[in-house]
Specification:
The structure is a homodimer of 378-residue chains. Chain A is of the alpha/beta class. Chain A folds into 2 domains: 257 residues, Purple Acid Phosphatase, chain A, domain 2 (4-Layer Sandwich); 110 residues, no CATH class. The first copy, chain A, is built from 12 helices and 18 strands. The first copy, chain A, has a 6-stranded mixed β-sheet. In chain A, helix 1 runs parallel beside helix 2 and helix 6 packs across helix 7. The longest helix of chain A has 17 residues. Chains A and B meet through helix 2 and helix 4 of A and helix 2 and helix 4 of B. Chains A, B: Heterodimer of SbcC and SbcD. Chains A, B: InterPro entries: Calcineurin-like_PHP, DNA_Repair-Maintenance_Comp, Metallo-depent_PP-like, Mre11_N, SbcD, SbcD_C. Chains A, B: One of its GO terms (biological process) is DNA recombination. Chains A, B: Belongs to the SbcD family.
Chain lengths: 378, 378
Amino acid sequence: MVMVMRFLHTADWHIGKRLNSFDLLADQQAVFEQIRDVARSEHVDALVIAGDVYDRALANEESVEAVNGMIQTLNLTDQLPLLVISGNHDSPVRLGTGSPWFKATHYYLHTALAQAIDEPVTLGDTQFFLLPFWQPFAARQYFADDSLTTVPLAMAAIVQAMQAKFAPDKKHVLVAHLFAAGASQTDSETTSKVGGLDAVPVDLLQVFDYVALGHLHSHHALHDEKVRYSGSPLKFSASEAGDEKGVWIVDTTAGTVEWRPLTSPHDLQAITASFADLTKPDFLPPDAQDDYLAITLTDTQVIPNVMQILRGQYPHILEIKRAHGRARDDEAPVLTVQRHLDPQKLAADFYTEMQETPLTDRQTEWLKQTWAEMEAQE
Amino acid sequence: MVMVMRFLHTADWHIGKRLNSFDLLADQQAVFEQIRDVARSEHVDALVIAGDVYDRALANEESVEAVNGMIQTLNLTDQLPLLVISGNHDSPVRLGTGSPWFKATHYYLHTALAQAIDEPVTLGDTQFFLLPFWQPFAARQYFADDSLTTVPLAMAAIVQAMQAKFAPDKKHVLVAHLFAAGASQTDSETTSKVGGLDAVPVDLLQVFDYVALGHLHSHHALHDEKVRYSGSPLKFSASEAGDEKGVWIVDTTAGTVEWRPLTSPHDLQAITASFADLTKPDFLPPDAQDDYLAITLTDTQVIPNVMQILRGQYPHILEIKRAHGRARDDEAPVLTVQRHLDPQKLAADFYTEMQETPLTDRQTEWLKQTWAEMEAQE
């Protein structure tokens, strides 16, 4: 048994997640390999995944196969101890399948509140408390205390129960999947919470030497020395375009926390530009043309088939917005021409203009049916 | 390591299965406890489950929790070695979750054809080959042989490959989930199959000392000393009403195979009787009134609300049939009365007479909507 503890903190893998219609699995596999490389080169003693391993409680078979493979690689091939909890996106029952067998190879997977308190895991110089995503009713049940009606009240009880199990000669790390924000005000009798009734006040967590959080996807979500989100290893939405993704390397012996960045084969970029610039062949370097793009057009005029045209050059466009709105339809000369078109064509063109993407085959079929029904009623 | 081998052979648990609308899980749990008791009292060295652990590839959480609990009880609490394969109802990926860890406690779970051939399991004096449900394309892939177009051809190749791995000082047991029937005719050049292209000829399996099969739900499905179906531990359809359910206790050292019956808390009975007899309070003993009943009425006359009336006494009726058909509607005096009823009531009564069960709320709603549409069109 190692007598130091240096671990990698990651969370929110969301295996099975799609970006619009795009399958992220290949990128997730690539980033997984980077995490594996970081774990190796940093000589960590363990790897922490703070919840939301899956994107959905009912993951598809491909996702289950991928997660099974990743976990097996880390724990059985690389012989790395794993500390894993279920997040709100995971099914505790499904994710927990097989967990009683995993401990034998130091893969600790907790999916129930009771385990978090009753079964701390000691590795090296550190005692880990693995707290899966939980709801106040579970705390009321565990403590047989109906007064634990809010997240802050319940979390206070949970932390107190964990503290009672603290081994005095060890460092204490909490792994949790929750929304931590704000602070308790303890100067009045009634402890009011700044973060709201659903948030865990950060000061509650200061009894730990480190808190490895999952739930929020940005590692900048919280500014605290010891209480940190790792964020997701990939960008999952346009709002994360500016984020740097990565993992924390935590050394409880040295008391250090260091950031190691990860890069996805397909970055997610937010781009503001004119249609004319975007359609220049070298506007983005060749390897960036495949990135996931959230585009904001600076143009105001109507551009027919804009999504179709731009996707020809940038296959992974997530959305197209307008920076300055769009010219009103009555300014668009195209309308006078369209008077002579049939109503279905008009509707399809209108949709394309508004949504900047043409109707799908299915939508065209709906339009056709609806039109037929309207005609039948006349 | 034991140097004898005595094992319990069961299959086709189908956890998650419903009988009509009835949830079988409580009965399945009760029968599981009987299997556990038999394993204990018979001092078996291992327990074999020959596929179809689940009823569906995508089992609900309750079923996953139940199976996880049963397997954990057998393998971790009772410390019984387990030999398990996936059946056609199981998802190999989902059932196989965690399997690389299970071997450490002698829980061998094979979900791929390659494992069946490449990873025989030796326990005591016996070598087990665990062959999950497979399709000929998997055999073509494994052997890189496009000529394996049918089940008999592919199975011949599989058995030959297994034979090449036979340890000469061991007994050899095949665990498989397949349809075995008929025999190969090897007296002509072209081996024609009696059982058809989808069946495994039983004589192919004679190289084994015992073949523990799953797939067919009756243990009488095959008459062979060494090649046996255990059948399901519960009756799953009216056609199984006459079956005795149970498990085989196989002793490869002594060369014996013995039957141990199981009884579900709710039996499934097929009953032929008159309505008058059935409605006598003591027609069935009190504890049998809760059984699953497939009823055949000997009456011919129309009996209004017959399902509703009989379910008052027998809550778990699966179906009501007629032994001698039913009196034609024009013989039923009730019709003259019904002339004065409104059409929806007439339709509902007609359905009730024909199906011997009243319309559900949803069906009543459909009827109402359809009638409204018909009136609107007039």
